[in-house]
Design brief:
- The complex is a heterodimer.
- Chain A is mainly beta.
- Chain A has strands spanning 3-6, 10-12, 18-25, 34-39, 45-52, 57-60, 68-73, 78-83, 92-98, 103-104, 108-112.
- In chain A, the strands form two sheets. In chain A, strands 2, 4, 5, 6, 9, 10 and 11 form a seven-stranded mixed beta sheet that branches.
- Chain A is globular and about 40 Å long.
- The termini of chain A are far apart.
- Chain B is globular, with a radius of gyration of 13 Å.
- Classes of the chains: A mainly beta, B mainly beta.
- Chain A binds chain B through residues 35, 37, 44-47, 59, 61, 95, 100-102, 104-107, and chain B through 34, 36, 42-46, 49, 55, 87, 89, 91, 94-100.
């Protein structure tokens, strides 16, 4: 069955970076877009961007251009999102999702605090 | 960018009730509209894709309809496990989520 397994909770300091992973199984990783989504406490969901692991192409929501960098490792069927120059505004749960947003990871909580 | 206006934000209902949740797009989204259910601390679960297609394994009391800019999720007879937050996603032009509807037990 399709599974997206994300890395664990992160507590990071302001101005630092963090890299979250999403390991895919149960489907062809290279043939499906991997999306990343942010959910802030009490707020709705925002699409951050997608990566197509087959060729590494990416597309970002303008709001997250320069904040998020998406990469993928075909050998391990793992997608990554790096968030840089972190502030308290970046504290949120981050999800990966694939296959037309049919399948989602369990979410990774990122807390930015000194 | 396409904006999605979801209503109501909160909905109080009883087991057995029929409820509807609406999403209005700022422009025609050609039926590229999905509906999701999310429970606290969990990932969203897709219920409906492309307006009216029921995801495998989802009970038939969930249905979707709409066209153009206006879309509706209907739950025909609420069950205890249906109390959750629901939101829509348009995927016609990039991706925009509705703000969510919290469905609570009356």
């Amino acid at each position: 069955q399709v599974q997206l397994q994300q890395s664990g909770t992160e507590l990071v300091k302001p101005a630092s970076s963090v890299k979250i992973s999403c390991k895919a199984s149960g489907y062809t990783f290279t043939s499906n877009y991997m999306h990343w989504i942010r959910q802030q406490p009490g707020n709705g969901l925002e699409w951050i961007g997608w990566i197509y692991p087959g060729n590494g192409n990416t597309k970002y929501n303008q709001k997250f251009d320069g904040k998020a960098t998406l990469t993928a490792d075909k050998s391990s069927s793992t997608a990554y999102m790096q968030l840089s120059s972190l502030t308290s505004e970046d504290s949120a749960v981050y999800f990966c999702a694939s296959r037309g947003f049919a399948y989602w990871g369990q979410g990774t909580l990122v807390t930015v605090s000194s | 960018d396409i904006q999605m206006t979801q209503s109501p934000s909160f909905l109080s209902a009883s087991v057995g009730d029929r409820v509807t949740i609406n999403c209005k797009a700022s422009q025609n989204i050609n039926k590229y509209l999905n509906w999701y259910q999310q429970k606290l601390g969990e990932a969203p679960k897709r219920l409906i894709y492309n307006t009216n297609n029921l995801q495998t394994g989802i009970p038939s009391r969930f249905s979707g309809s709409g066209s153009g800019t206006d879309y509706t999720l209907t739950i025909s007879s609420l069950q205890p496990e249906d109390f959750a937050t629901y939101f829509c996603l348009q995927h016609n032009s990039l991706y925009t989520f509705g703000a969510g509807t919290k469905l609570e037990l009356k």
